[in-house]
């Protein structure tokens, strides 16, 4: 690892100092930091940022956490370009059997403007479905790969109880913070994270609610699922989730690289802890919607 890049993409950044700072972030904040010999990675000589990227990639791999990853400047830019060009779907829904409200809740990882649009559209959809006075609700998370949990939770806020929804836990299992619902706003550390509030009250509060899950239900979608677990008259159907029920922090580095770092586990309102393993449904089956309808009937 002695090659020097003749066209330094980030002039003025010392590779050794850059590597030391990133390793310090990993050692201090990574959920699985205790299992890595950080001194070994600090001893690797680096002559370029490419060398530093290679060491960081190996250190991330040593964490063994599938939800943590490192993006080089080129990979980070490609992801940003893809994200800006991607058509993000909005929540959609309809009445089923003229009795049950069905809500398809897609992933959301857009700009603040898109997050507000997503939340407002979802809130309007909830109100429109509630006009039919449904006997129960179905929330479909099967195609939701994650992103930002707060717009999703704001949309479905009328189906949840005010108060504690879930918790973040550190590596020692201690609760570091909670996410909560108050008057249509999702709070984290007493700060509102809702793009726009959704204080709507259903015609039938605390409805029977079925959640549909599958292997593509991941990350923020799993946090949304966790927010319902432990409530009365809530049941889950389908297949186990993707197994990314941990909280990530996105750290943009000075050369354009990005570190997506898993820093905490998640727990539901009853204190049950979730990690990077799939969350099983209450009723397993490929035809999750049919199972949910049978239960609601």
Automatic annotation (TrEMBL):
SMART domains: TSPc. Transmembrane segments: none annotated. It comes from the Bacteria. Residues 188-207 are annotated as: Disordered. InterPro entries: ClpP/crotonase-like_dom_sf, Tail-specific_protease. Residues 57-286 form the Tail specific protease domain. This is Tail specific protease domain-containing protein. The lineage of its organism: Bacteria, Bacillati, Actinomycetota, Actinomycetes, Streptosporangiales.
């Amino acid at each position: 690892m002695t090659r020097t890049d003749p066209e330094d993409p980030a002039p003025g950044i010392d590779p050794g100092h850059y590597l030391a700072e990133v390793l310090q972030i990993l050692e201090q904040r990574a959920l699985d930091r205790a299992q890595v010999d950080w001194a070994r990675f600090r001893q690797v000589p680096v002559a370029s940022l490419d060398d530093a990227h290679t060491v960081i990639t190996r250190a991330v791999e040593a964490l063994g956490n599938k939800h943590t990853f490192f993006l080089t400047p080129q990979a980070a830019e490609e992801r940003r370009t893809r994200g800006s060009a991607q058509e993000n779907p909005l929540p959609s829904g309809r009445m089923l059997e003229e009795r049950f409200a069905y809500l398809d809740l897609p992933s959301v990882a857009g700009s603040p403007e898109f997050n507000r649009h997503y939340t407002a559209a979802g809130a309007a959809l909830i109100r429109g479905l509630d006009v039919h006075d449904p006997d129960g609700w179905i929330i479909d998370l099967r195609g939701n790969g994650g992103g930002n949990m707060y717009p999703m939770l704001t949309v479905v806020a009328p189906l949840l109880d005010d108060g504690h929804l879930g918790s973040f836990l550190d590596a020692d299992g201690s609760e570091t913070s909670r996410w909560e619902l108050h008057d249509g706003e999702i709070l984290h550390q007493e700060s509102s994270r809702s793009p726009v509030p959704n204080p709507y009250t259903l015609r039938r509060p605390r409805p029977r609610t079925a959640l549909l899950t599958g292997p593509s239900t991941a990350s923020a979608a799993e946090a949304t699922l966790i927010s319902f677990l432990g409530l009365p008259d809530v049941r889950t159907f389908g297949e186990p989730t993707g197994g990314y029920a941990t909280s990530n922090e996105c750290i943009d580095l000075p050369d354009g690289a990005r570190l997506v770092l898993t820093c905490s586990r998640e727990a539901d309102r009853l204190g049950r802890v979730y990690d990077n393993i799939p969350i099983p449904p209450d009723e397993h089956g490929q035809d999750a919607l049919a199972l949910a309808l049978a239960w609601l009937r």
